[in-house]
Amino acid sequence: MRTRHTRRAAVALGVGAVGALAGCLGGNSVVDAGGGDDGHDDGTETPSADGPPPADRSPLVAYDASRLRAATVSGGPPKDGIPSVDEPSVVDASAAAFLRDEEIVVGVARGEAVRAYPRKILVHHEIVNDRLDGVPVSVTYCPLTGTVLGFERGATTFGVSGNLVNSNLVMYDRATDSRWPQVLATAIDGPLTGRSLREFDVVWTTWRQWRARYPETEVLSEDTGYVRNYGVDPYGSYGPKRGYYARQSTMFEPLTTDDRLQPKTTVLGVRTGAGATAVQSSWLAREGVVDAAVGDERFAFVHDPALDSGFAYRVPADVPVAADGEDDRIRVDGDPHAPDALPFERAHGIEAMWFAWAGFYPETDLHAYP
């Protein structure tokens, strides 16, 4: 199922098609001057000179760091050859004429900040170093694994290393040059090896759905400081799916293979320090609620029809959670709740292509169509 290409070839194809991927106008900032407002949302201070702030609890890493370093390959472009956006500008929803209703955005609602990041911009930059509700953050996207994750970054910024592991973006922080596979959220090389990042939820949805939920949203503008044709995706298309996103082959060797699903099938996964579990996204959409567990912890995956996305929650063992069956509400012990507002701790859910999830978490449980 695998074909041998490099991302340089894919990007070059995009350049050839549109003649516009060359010609970066802006340089990459090395360190965000930031300062003065680097606390995170629980009010504590974050480190400013020794890399991004550490997570309170680390997710599972199923391989030794040495094994992951050995599996790291060049994706083609050099370090910062795919430039992060370090000085993002935003516009109001009413000024986002460059977005069609059906286009995919990555949405974040964090404190008082509500912002959408168009996928068509992210595919050319993979990382946006931003500030939301006063907190320095990075919104990241790996097109080869279909994963979007948000991280707190402290006073540093993240850049694209040019390397991949399990086809997944390997970020580096500009304070210590440590290397961070996006899905693992844990450094595997450099002085911060073993440290895990603070993550926050992001939502993969369409512009129409996000704008309907959050009409006050801001949007990352195409004024990124770089010359790019944001109308062309060098890997293919999501509407309809074409190119890399439609083929079941991968560009690079996965860490392991698992034929329980087709490689590019989308799943929503949760990992803890003890293990991992995942739900086939289309199965979750059909069921409304899927019960799962990792070790002794119970999780409820819920589908949000209005966003066509999913969320995961840590749920006590004896509390019934069920889809309403008549509207978009979720019944918790009989009481209705919006899918994004169940009265439980939110677990960090990650949407991913199956091959990537199974590669990183080979012992994962899977809930899918029988």
Provide the descriptors you would attach to this structure in a database record.
370 residues; mainly beta; 12% helix; disordered N terminus; DUF3179; DUF3179 domain-containing protein
Radius of gyration: 20 Å
Oligomer: single chain
Number of domains: 2
Span between N and C termini?
23 Å
Question: How are the strands ordered across the major sheet?
Answer: 2-13-4-3-12
Biggest beta sheet summary: 5 strands, mixed
Distinct helical segment count? 6
Number of E-type strands: 26
The percentage helix is 10-25%
- Report strand %: 25-35%
Q: Briefly note the structural class of the backbone.
A: mainly beta
Low-confidence spans: 1-6, 11-48
Coarse morphology:
globular
Mean pLDDT: 89
InterPro entries: DUF3179
Pfam families: DUF3179
Protein name: DUF3179 domain-containing protein
Condensed summary:
By secondary structure, the chain is mostly beta strands. The chain folds into two domains: 65-242, no CATH class; 257-367.
Topology:
Layout: H1 7-18, H2 65-70, E1 73-74, E2 90-92, E3 104-110, E4 113-118, H3 119-125, E5 127-132, E6 135-142, E7 147-152, E8 158-165, E9 168-173, E10 179-181, E11 199-200, E12 203-206, H4 207-213, E13 218-220, E14 236-238, E15 241-243, E16 266-271, E17 276-280, H5 281-287, E18 289-294, E19 297-304, E20 309-314, E21 321-323, E22 330-332, E23 335-337, E24 345-347, E25 350-353, H6 354-360, E26 365-367
Parallel strand pairs: 4-13, 17-26
Antiparallel strand pairs: 1-8, 2-13, 3-4, 3-12, 5-6, 6-7, 7-11, 8-9, 9-10, 14-15, 16-17, 16-25, 18-19, 19-20, 20-24, 21-22, 22-23
Protein name: DUF3179 domain-containing protein
InterPro entries: DUF3179 (IPR021516)
Pfam family, one: DUF3179
